[in-house]
Every structure is written in structure tokens, then in C-alpha cells.
Amino acid sequence: MNAFAGSIDKPNSYIGRSVSRPNAKRLLEGRGRYVTDLVLPRMLHAAFVRSPYAHGKIVSIDIDEAKALSGVRAVFTGEDLASICAPWTGTLEHFSNMKSPPQVPLPLEKVMWSGQPVVLIVADSRAIAEDAAELVIVDIEELPALADPVEAMSAAAMSQELADNICFATKLDSGGVEEAFDAADTTVEQSFIFGRHTAVTLEPRAIVADYDPSENRLTAHHATQTPYQFQDVYSRHYGIPEANVRVIAPDIGGSFGMKLHVYHEEMAVVGASIRLGRPIKYVADRMESFVSDIHARDHRITGRLALDRDGRITAMDVDDLTAIGAFSSYPRTSAVEGNQVIRLMGAPYDFSSYRANLSVVFQNKVQTSQYRAVGHPIACAVTECLVDAAARELGLDPFEIRERNLIPDRSYPRTSPTGYQFEKLSHQVCLARLKSIMNYDALRAEQAGLRQNGILRGIGIALFVEITNPSPAFYGVGGARISAQDGAILKLTPSGEVHCSISVTEQGQGTETIIGQIVADQLGIDREKVRVMTGDTDTTPHGGATWACRGAGIGGETALQAARKLKANLLAVAGLILQAQPGELDIRADWIVEAVTGQQRVSLAEVARIAFFRSDTLPPETQAQLSVVHHYAPQGYPFAFTNGAQGCLVEVDAETGFVKILKHWVVEDCGRIINPLLVDEQVRGGVVQGLGAAFFEECLYNEEGQLTNGSLADYLVPMACEMPDIEISHVETPTRDTELGAKGCGEAGTAAASAAAMNAVNDALVGHGAVLTQIPMTPTRILRALGTI
């Protein structure tokens, strides 16, 4: 029994309760405070001249006309900023053979992708800066572009600092793979292509860098998930003491991992502010975002399964070629996704022989890196599509083949063939729940009836495992200054309210809401009396912030432990006032009460009044501690794993190739649920992004490395009218690593949506000789698979 079972009915018990977000009304009314809204005295504006070529040598840059334009304050080229900014390199020490060229804000000799910023214009307005950018003449000697990652594998190195174009390579081999395939009764093999896509956040990247030379102090108002990471980056690379760097992340309009990374534009704007001693604002427009925001995915994978005569998986063999653009991103690198892909393969299934080969390759395109559900959709799609292929080969139902192969729920803890240690997962419960909420047998009967009338409906399912709650072994062990711990400062105000400053951050997912719930629950006070503050390195304690689904599992645990400390302090003071033992008292509904009877004794506000203003009435030498500081870092194994199952129902028009998504189902197990409403919002949002990748989103390049659909006129994102009803069911398997028991949920929807969708499309096309193994599954690709074009 967990510590919170049944507690939802107690006064001021909020863990497990659906409550609305306190900031929702303000944001919906257009009262958000974004970086874009910020106007500072003497503020200037930035615009960039970008490379028209994917690869080329910079011959000369003529900035004279641009500098002469009225309203232009400065024009910066690579040398101007490289002289004050230490270069950065996107590698991690525990990836022993990893390499990447060093990066500086603006290029010195070569351009490496189409859209790379080359010159920075600073002017009195953005319009003037853009006009000046048109006057800059950049002479670039175009070089052959390496757009195709297969060609890049064996081509001459793009960067003179490297011997080849391999950023990182690794192999996993648990043994017995060849023997298992030789002995197999059935084998299946498929090759997959996963297209590039990008975040398309509601708010683009934005920064206002404000350097004060009189104090050697930098304040960066930055639309980022990780203000503490950027405080460290700006401090180290520009030689400013960390205490003199303040990063403020106000309201953030979405990130999905895209705003985690160091970008050349932001580094250049900081450098320009240092040079000029004035605040400088840069907001990427949507077309800039397409050629500068990190892209995601871009994998080419071949996978094989071996099975015995009973349809049980005996071995898996995978080769993953991951393309990452011109550089490895910093400081988290671009190798993490591929590494997680090969380590999450086959995760739900009970087999022991596994082999994988990973090659992470440079190319002349925008960098790829971490994006919502890093690696999860790739590993899930390969695994689940191979399992469905095996089911078709063996004549088994998709549910039946999974039931035969799942890791039994009673068999944990377990170590996967890839080396991951699973504390406790619930695959069998989730699969059974999915079958029930889908009303699967009725769906199959309806499908058969419609097929007789030429209507092609398909049912797809997919199981997933998600990585959450990362420990220091995730980045810290690799030398990256990315914290795995979080900190919280809780204080009782003189009016009896509570302020919580915490290092986890808010980007619209409800972090502030769940932290407020946890604090109110543990203190026994009304949630409305808890104010949560995030996103400012000067006013909140240092911590990892929000990424990799760590907000609830690590940030929430930090808040819980801090609240328990503060409660103990408050009960100690109340005991002195009431001449009672603290253990005889409790806090309920903002009152100090007798723990056994619940009788109210004194209000929390009165305790605060006495402690702050009449401490003379307390026993001599009493020092009431009405503020606490607490830090928490996960211990033991590097991750807490979650799991779940998804189902998808589609209808395919064989004449046009169009797919209508009729319904989607999700069963997820994120451990202890703090706010069911927000979990459902996160899961639905994740599913939409997963279905976007499955059917719509792809960054398309030509052979010269030019992005050919770099605007929302050409790049498709899922819209409300195209999305189905998404039904969600929950299973709770709390982690025993924390008191709270929470894991992550933000990436669960994305993790398996595209896999379930691909299996659904292929199920619809059974008997038509078509199998889709490339996403997005566009109408053209479906028609090609059908052989009609």
C-alpha cells in the first residue's frame, strides 16, 4: 500500500486530484509574459544573414553598406565574436569514441548547412536590421553537400578537424544472436526510414540579452526549459562569473526539448550585448525556425526478429544509421537519441539474445537532437512493427503474439538484453486494459463486415517503455554540467500563505500546478494559498529544471520533502504556542489541529503572526524556522521506467492514399498520478505529436541540402479537425525509489502513437500486398506501396 492510498478524501489532500492550472485563465486571456513582450530601455534588435548554401567556403564578407544604413548600431562577423567566446564541442566523456567539430557563434571559414547564421546585424528596430541584412554581400564558394547519410558514411570528412563523418558508433551484443537465428522457426526482417521533423512550438526561440559592463553582469531573458544550464554556458564561454549571470525564463510557449540546446543565434546575441553594453532582442521568425531549430529523428534502421514455433521471440538484431546534421548539439549532444533507440528496442518482451549496431553520422543539414520522447518512437515502431509482421507470418492475432512474449508483471526486477534495469512495469495489465477499452473483438467484427463492402479499416496496437527521472548518470557522468538534482525553497509568509521557489520549470505542461498540489497536500493547507515561482536563476535554487519527464518524479519529490520539513518546523512552533507536543498536532485546512480529534486549536496565520511579530511571547532563545531549503537528487539506478500500450483505428482510401484516423486509445502507467487532468492533457498532446510524425510532419531536403518545405505553407502539422478522439486509461505502479512514487508521463503519448498508427495502416492493407515501413505515411507513399503509382 502506498502512502497516498485513500488520502484524496482527506481535507486539503490534492495528490491524485484533478485541479485546474492557476495560470490557465491568465494565458487564455492573452496576459502571458513572454520574452517577445519584453521591452527594455536602450534595447536594440538583432537579425541574421544566413547561408544560402548547405556547404561552402567563406571567401569574403562585405558589410560596409549595412553598417552605413541609418539606425544600424553594429555588424558582427565570426571573428568579432569568436575573440570573446570560447568554442564549444558537443561530446560526452562516457561516449568514448564520440567526436564533433568545435563551434563558435558565427562561422569563421566555412558554412555547414543552408540557413546557418553568418552575419549578425544589430539595429534600432528589427525592420532596420532586416533591411541592413539585405545589404550584406557574402561571397561563398559552394562545395558539394553531403545530404544523404549513407553517402556521408564513406565520404571525405566535411570538417577539417575530423578524419571522417562518424560522430559516434557503438555496438551492443548480449550473445547468442546468430545461434538463435540459425535455430529459429520463423524470422522477419524489415527496413525502416523515419523522416526528420521539427518542434513548431507555439512560441519561437527568443532571447533578450542585457549585459551591464559597469558590473560585468549579464541578464538573459530567455525562452528556455533550462535556465540553470544556460547560466553555466554563458558564464563559462564568455568568462563571466556565474554569480553575475542571471537567466530568466518567463512564460514559455512550448518547447518539447527544442529549447534545451545551445544555438548559434543566442550565443551571438549574448556576445553582441557584451560588445555593445546594451540589451539586444532576438526572436526567430517561423521561416528562420525551420532552418535553425533542431530537427528530430532521421533514422534508417534494419531490424530482424527470430521466433520459435510457438511464436515466442528468441532474438533481435538491429542496425541504426542516425543522421544528425553538421554538428553534434551542445551540451547534450546529438548521439543520445540513437543510443536510446538501440537500448529501448524490444523493451516489453521476454527474450535474452540481442545485438545492435549504431552509427551517428554528420551531414550538411540542420542539427538534430533531443525532442519529445527521445528515441522512444523509433525503438517502439521498429519493435512493434516487427512483432506485427511476425504475427502476420504466423497467423496470430496481434494481441495474442504479445501476450505470449511480454515480460510477466510478476517477474520484476528485470534487466533487459540491452542492459536497462526495470524496477517494476505492468505490460500484462496494460495490454489487457487496452483490449478491454478498445472493445477489440467488436472492432474486428466491424472491420470484417466493412471490408466486404470495400472499406479498408485497420487496427494497430503498440507497447512502449519510457525513460523518466534521469539521475546524474545521464549527463553528469559524461562531464556535462547539467544537474540531475532539484532544489526548493519553502517559506511561510506573515499572512499564513506559502511561497515555493523551485528549480523545475513551466512550459505549459502544468509544473507549477502539480508542485502547488504537492506542497498544499503535505502541509495541509488550501492550494490557493501556495504560490509557486520558477524559471529565475537569481530567485530559485539551482537544479535540473524540466526535461526527460523529470518534473513530477524529481521536482515533485523535492517539493514533497521540503514541505515535510517545513511542516515539522511549523508544528514545533505551534507546540510552543499551545504548550503541546508537536507529535500531538497536525495541520488541516489551514489550522493547527489536534491530530487525533481534528479539533482546531490555532490558525496557521496566527502562528505566522506570533512567530514574525511577537516572538517575545515564545520561550527564550526560540528561533522559529519558517523557511526551509531542500535539495533532492535521485539515487541508485539512473532511470525510473514507465510503460503503457496504445491502439489506433484508421480507415485507408486505397484510391487516394488518404488515411482517416478514427480513434486512438492509450493505457499508461506513470506511477503515482498527481493530477489526472494534467496527465491526460500531456498524453493527448503527446499522441498528437506522434500522429503528426506518423502522417504529416517531415522536413524535406533536395540533393543539394536545401530544405524545400521550410514554412507552414508547405510543412504539415496535425490540426484539430484531423485528430481523433483519444481515450485514456490509467494504471498506477509507483516507483519505490521515492516517497511520492511518481514517474513521468509527458513523452508517453508520443512514444507509441506512430507505431500503433503504422500497424493500423498495415492492418488495413492486409491482402493488398502493401507494407508501410516509412514515416510519415503520406498518401503518395501509401499509393506507391499499393503499386498504383
UniProtKB/TrEMBL annotation:
This is Carbon-monoxide dehydrogenase, large subunit. The keyword Hydrolase does not apply. InterPro entries: Ald_Oxase/Xan_DH_a/b, Ald_Oxase/Xan_DH_a/b_sf, Ald_Oxase/xanthine_DH-like, AldOxase/xan_DH_MoCoBD1, AldOxase/xan_DH_MoCoBD2, AldOxase/xan_DH_Mopterin-bd_sf. Residues 29-144 form the Aldehyde oxidase/xanthine dehydrogenase a/b hammerhead domain. Keywords: Molybdenum, Oxidoreductase. PANTHER family: ALDEHYDE OXIDASE 1-RELATED, XANTHINE DEHYDROGENASE. The lineage of its organism: Bacteria, Pseudomonadati, Pseudomonadota, Alphaproteobacteria, Hyphomicrobiales. Pfam families: Ald_Xan_dh_C (PF01315), MoCoBD_1 (PF02738), MoCoBD_2 (PF20256). SUPFAM superfamilies: CO dehydrogenase molybdoprotein N-domain-like (SSF54665), Molybdenum cofactor-binding domain (SSF56003). It comes from Neorhizobium galegae bv. officinalis. It comes from the Bacteria. The keyword Oxidoreductase applies. GO terms for molecular function: iron ion binding; oxidoreductase activity.
